[in-house]
């Protein structure tokens, strides 16, 4: 595995790979890698000839009161994990390398952002889209891998790719969970032991909500159940629970073939998110499943 | 020359060319081609193996009170000219092909836009940058050609390419002029005979202004001279005359190696722009010259 820190090196090595007719798979991350990331790398490794992983904690996607400075970092462990997963090229740029000056241009995201995390994280997806446009141009990947845990991010990126005609295919991968159902996240380390125990309730509640939705229960009743569960069973505060069409993220859940049930809970030092994406038309037959 | 109207066809043909190891030159236009465009195609033809020209009147870069609907179009003549210039692929998409739905993302341009044309054309360069990001992704060109008549556009695009890491090189080409100095423009057809006669004064005045700048005269005095010239010698209205650093477009003209003297004059049915870009350090030695 090659580890590089400059854009020029990435361009050179990916150009070599392309010239050899290799397909390039790309996993953009903010580091502090866990099994969720590992599953993305594994799939990229299976599907592509040359696998690139980037580790970059992107300041543009953090709000002024968010956790950019204290976002967890462990470069050494990240390198070992990427190496284990058979990654070919690990790109770890500095902020100065990615943003050598105040940028003259940014991407503005107009759709799929006024719901879920976008409501409280104003400008967050502009920052995500901006750094991804840069990374797509630098890496020139054929396929890019995202986890469905960040389902809104994946929906926004799908729109970005389509509307900017970016020559890359998005592969959406299933959320990887702890044994008790808690979605893997770099931010789980911030949980106290008590909060960690309570946190499994996010997945349990989502599963229950999806079952009720399948049974034809209305969205308001389900939302009230979720709110009561989080209030009564955890020390956290419900930031949102929403049922929307996916990937359009419209209130009209008949807008797409799929529906997302998504939740965010603020604990003392960590805000956790989770979701289930279920097929609308086959709900009854297939039951709940991730896509 | 192949003429195509769909994004899929452009991608297919440019991919073929890339796979054959050809360098791709790209000239994005809004059509109604004149000798200015021809000079861009000629240079692309000289420097690249495969030349792509796009003709697309981009609604996103026109303001609500601008001339999108009545922007001049002559597809047949454009095709003949592109054919004559040895263009390989002419891309003439419809608005629906480029924007099949309201876009979820646009590019926001923050720098180099609050001066010159950007002052009165709010959002114009956002529209330019957005369509260019799309076209760059569709065409995958190695080199893109712009005329220095639209100097602010070229400066904005240079920033876009650098800050988004777009893998394309911008080639800036000299403004092509009529015999009396009037810069070639698709909008010149809107001039009355009297206005057409007066319009040569833009270039003459710019030349005079550059000479005075070289001689050490201060910017305010030069601006007053230009204003008086346009007021007294034409029926048009001076929209702006500015002397700025280039390509940063800063008021401090010592910011870059080059300086731009730029003018815009509103005639009854056409707003004309022109500029001179002169080298700052070599002014005395080389005199006025385009870059």
Automatic annotation (TrEMBL), chains A, B:
Asked whether the keyword Nucleotide-binding is assigned, the reply is yes
User: What reaction is this protein's catalytic activity?
Assistant: (R)-pantoate + beta-alanine + ATP = (R)-pantothenate + AMP + diphosphate + H(+)
- Binding-site residues, ATP: 30-37, 147-150, 176, 184-187
| Alphabetical list of Gene3D superfamilies matching this protein | HUPs, Pantoate-beta-alanine ligase, C-terminal domain
Q: Give the source's domain of life in one word.
A: Bacteria
- Grouped into one coarse class, the protein's main location is cytoplasm
Q: State where beta-alanine binds.
A: 61
Pfam annotation, one family? Pantoate_ligase
Q: Which residues bind (R)-pantoate?
A: 61, 153
Subcellular location as annotated? Cytoplasm
What are the protein's GO molecular function terms?
Answer: ATP binding; pantoate-beta-alanine ligase activity
A single Gene Ontology CC annotation of this entry is:
cytosol
Q: What does this protein do?
A: Catalyzes the condensation of pantoate with beta-alanine in an ATP-dependent reaction via a pantoyl-adenylate intermediate.
**What name is this protein filed under?**
Pantothenate synthetase
Q: What gene does this protein come from?
A: panC
């Amino acid at each position: 595995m090659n580890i590089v820190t400059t854009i020029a090196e990435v361009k050179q090595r990916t150009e070599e790979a392309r010239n050899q007719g290799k397909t390039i798979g790309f996993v953009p991350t903010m580091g502090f890698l866990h099994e969720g990331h590992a599953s993305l790398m594994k799939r990229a490794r299976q599907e592509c000839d040359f696998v690139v992983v980037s580790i970059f904690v992107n300041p543009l996607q953090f709000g002024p009161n968010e956790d950019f400075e204290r976002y967890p970092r462990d470069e050494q462990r990240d390198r070992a994990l990427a190496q284990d997963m058979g990654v070919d090229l690990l790109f770890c740029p500095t902020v100065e390398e990615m943003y050598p000056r105040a940028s003259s241009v940014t991407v503005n995201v107009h759709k799929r952002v006024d719901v879920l995390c976008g409501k409280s994280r104003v400008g967050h997806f502009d920052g995500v889209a901006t750094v991804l446009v840069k990374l797509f141009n630098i890496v020139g990947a054929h396929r890019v891998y995202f986890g469905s845990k960040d389902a809104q991010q994946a929906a926004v990126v799908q729109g970005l790719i389509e509307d900017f005609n970016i020559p890359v295919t998005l592969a959406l991968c299933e959320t990887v969970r702890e044994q008790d159902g808690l979605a893997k996240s770099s931010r789980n380390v911030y949980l106290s032991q008590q909060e960690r125990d309570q946190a499994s309730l996010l997945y349990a509640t989502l599963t229950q909500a999806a079952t009720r939705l399948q049974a034809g229960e209305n969205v308001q009743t389900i939302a009230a159940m979720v709110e009561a569960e989080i209030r009564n069973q955890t020390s956290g505060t419900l930031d949102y629970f929403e049922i929307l069409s996916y990937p359009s993220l419209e209130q009209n859940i008949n807008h797409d073939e799929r529906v997302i049930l998504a939740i965010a809970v603020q604990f003392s030092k960590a805000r956790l998110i989770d979701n289930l994406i279920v097929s609308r038309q086959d709900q009854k037959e297939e039951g709940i499943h991730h896509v």
